[in-house]
Amino acid sequence: MFERVQTILAKQLRLAPEKITPESRIMKDLGADSLDILQLLMRIEDQYGIVIPDQALAKFDTVADVVAYLEKQEAAI
């Protein structure tokens, strides 16, 4: 799951995948802005066929937060 999120982020932010770790903070460490976050979420929602509510989005600080959320959603299916 991490590798899939890493690939999406790398493409979205034009970064080398190896620069993205689970501990990377999406905005502070990777330089994402609010538009990047929205585009990232749309890609994830399309790819996984889910809708991420705003209250969950507010909790996404690190890449690991996104991965944990997706794994929880996948386990619920």
Characterise the protein shown here.
The chain is mainly alpha-helical and 77 residues long. The protein has one domain (2-76): Non-ribosomal Peptide Synthetase Peptidyl Carrier Protein, Chain A (Orthogonal Bundle), CATH 1.10.1200.10. Helices cover 58% and strands 0% of the residues. The protein has four helices and no strands. Helix 1 (2-13) crosses helix 2 (34-48).
Q: What string, H for helix and E for strand, traces the elements in order?
A: HHHH
Number of strands: 0
Main sheet overview: none
Can you say what the CATH homologous superfamily is?
Answer: ACP-like
Percentage of residues in DSSP E strands: under 5%
Number of helices: 4
The CATH level-2 architecture is identified as: Orthogonal Bundle
Q: What is the level 1 CATH name?
A: Mainly Alpha
Oligomeric status? single chain
For the structure shown, list the relevant keywords:
77 residues; mainly alpha; Non-ribosomal Peptide Synthetase Peptidyl Carrier Protein, Chain A
Furnish the topology, listing elements before pairings.
Elements: H1 2-13, H2 34-48, H3 54-57, H4 63-76
Short description:
The chain has a single domain (2-76), classed as Non-ribosomal Peptide Synthetase Peptidyl Carrier Protein, Chain A.
